[in-house]
Amino acid sequence: MQFDNFTKLMKLNWPEAYKELWMMYPKMDKISNYIGQHIEHLMNEQGLLASDFHLLTALRRTSAHPPYQLMPSELCNFMLFSWGGLAKIMKRLEDKDIIVRVNSEQDKRIRLIRLTDKGVKSVEETATKLHHYQNQLLSGFSEQETDQLETLLTKLMNSVDQHSALVASDTEK
């Protein structure tokens, strides 16, 4: 395996770093890249971009039933995009009839971003294919191992979030 070679070279040629660096980081990066490439491939099949998938899933998870919609400011918060970046994605998806802008029923001044039927179909198909891919990646894991992996990744993510919040508060001072 390519990663085994990476590890051997690190251990042989830079033993201090090998001892001090936990080899988890390059592994997680590689896994993340593979999954990201797969999402990109799935979206490209539909003439869309990987960033589009994140907007579509943000809209889809807002409710158990249609309409799947959010205010643009809520999308910015969910997706951590700048307003300019989000506006470009929304324009592209609107041109492809994946999303539509509608007036809020409660306040006509507010415009909501809503998945169209085509958008719902796109995100559902992509999520199904991604789920199948995920199952392939985890096929060598028992249910207990999968649960343990989920628990450990959640614990790590919470630690990262906590550390990131501390770093952010330190930089604001």
Overall morphology: globular
- C-alpha-based Rg, rounded: 20 Å
Distance between the termini: 45 Å
- Counting structural domains, the number is 2
Largest sheet, in brief, is: 3 strands, antiparallel
In sequence order, what are the helices and strands, one letter per element?
HHHHEHHEEHH
CATH topology of the largest domain: Arc Repressor Mutant, subunit A
Structural class: mainly alpha
| Helical proportion, percent range | over 70%
CATH superfamily membership of the largest domain:
Winged helix-like DNA-binding domain superfamily/Winged helix DNA-binding domain
Task: Note the beta-strand portion.
Answer: 5-15%
CATH architecture annotation of the largest domain = Orthogonal Bundle
The overall strand count is: 3
| Uncertain segments | none
Mean pLDDT comes to 88
Top-tier CATH class of the largest domain: Mainly Alpha
Family: Belongs to the SarZ family.
Protein name: HTH-type transcriptional regulator SarZ
Main location: cytoplasm
InterPro entries: HTH_MarR-typ (IPR000835), Transc_reg_Sar_Rot_HTH (IPR055166), WH-like_DNA-bd_sf (IPR036388), WH_DNA-bd_sf (IPR036390)
What do these coordinates show?
This protein is mainly α and 173 residues long. The protein folds into 2 domains: 1-45; 48-127, Winged helix-like DNA-binding domain superfamily/Winged helix DNA-binding domain (Arc Repressor Mutant, subunit A). The chain is built from 8 helices and 3 strands. A 3-stranded antiparallel beta sheet has the order 1-3-2. β2 and β3 form a beta hairpin. The radius of gyration is 20 Å and the shape is globular. Belongs to the SarZ family. Residues 14-158 form the HTH marR-type domain. This is HTH-type transcriptional regulator SarZ. It is found in: Cytoplasm. Its main location: cytoplasm.
